Structures are given as C-alpha cells and as structure tokens.
Amino acid sequence: MKRTDYISWDEYFMGIAKLAAMRSKDPGTQVGACIVGEDNKILSIGYNGFPRGLSDDEFPWEREAERDLDTKYMYVTHAELNAILNFRGGTLAGAKIYVTLFPCNECAKAIVQSGIRTMIYESDKYADQSKFIASRMILKAAGVELVPYENGGREITFTV
Model's pTM, two decimal places? Predict the structure, then answer.
C-alpha cells in the first residue's frame, strides 16, 4: 500500500519558498518565493538580497538611518522580483507564485506583468501599510487569485 502521509503540493512549494528564504542574509526579514507552472513544475526560485555584484559586506543592512541611502531598502531585491528575474525561457503566463510574505506594490506590478495568475502567501503581517494595501488592489484588479496558505497542521523538519 502507498504512503498516505505525504505532503501536499502547497506544502511542498511553500516549503521550497521557506528554504529559499533561509538563503537571505537580511538580518531582519527573510523572504522566499517559488514560481510553479500549471503542471506543478518549479520554474524559478528567489529570496531577498542584494543584486549580483553588490557586496553584502559593503552595502547597508540597516532598516533605519538618517539617510535613505544608508538603509537596505535602496539596494535589496525582493524575493518575488528575484524569482521573476531568475526565470529563464518561456513564459510565466498562468503560473503560481508561493511567497512567504505578501508582496509590496512594486513586486505586485512585476507579478501582474509577468503573467502569474495565482499567488499563495503565508504571512500578511504588513497588511495595514499603504504599499501592501496598494499591492492587494493591484493584484485583485488584475485578476490574480490571492490564496492564503493553509498549513496542514503538520510540522515538517529536516536537518541539513
């Protein structure tokens, strides 16, 4: 008889997004994204970090500073955008994106423009901030299906 305790597709892909988030060097917020095609094949993965070629030892990781130029926000590429930019070949039209944190308005625009049709998100902890309210408006207006991730109640652990 086959196993019945295997993980669901949603658990699998959100698990990949969570694993990707662990690559982030951001001391405050680690975010991961996993883009999946209609056939449940992984198309791309991303996490929040500096663009290629920027030293994460020379650019700031601070959340607040006297000058915007001294904060991470001026330099970090978000997980969703990284996943979209990391995609090689074909189209993302009709794809799903799994994200560990609801995206900002800029990433929402990239999601819409890329043709992604469904977004499964785990956390929406910044829901009351303007850029996340705008993000929800953009995604809904463009017809992107927004699905809160429902953890099956099981804890999945592994050692690397």
Answer: 0.94
Please report, as a single letter, which amino acid is at residue 57.
Answer: D
Residue 88: exposed, middle, or buried by beta-carbon count in 10 A (0-12, 13-18, 19+)? exposed
**Tens digit of each residue's pLDDT (9 = 90 or more) over 135-157:** 999 999 999 999 999 987 777 77
Instruction: Give the whole-angstrom CA distance, residue 28 versus residue 157.
Output: 22
Place of tokens 């809904």: 140
Which positions are annotated as active-site residues?
80
CA angle 131, 103, 120 (to 5 degrees): 140
Question: What is the Cα–Cα distance from 4 to 147, expressed in whole angstroms?
Answer: 25
Give the residue from 4, 8, 3, 47 showing the smallest Cα distance to 151: 8
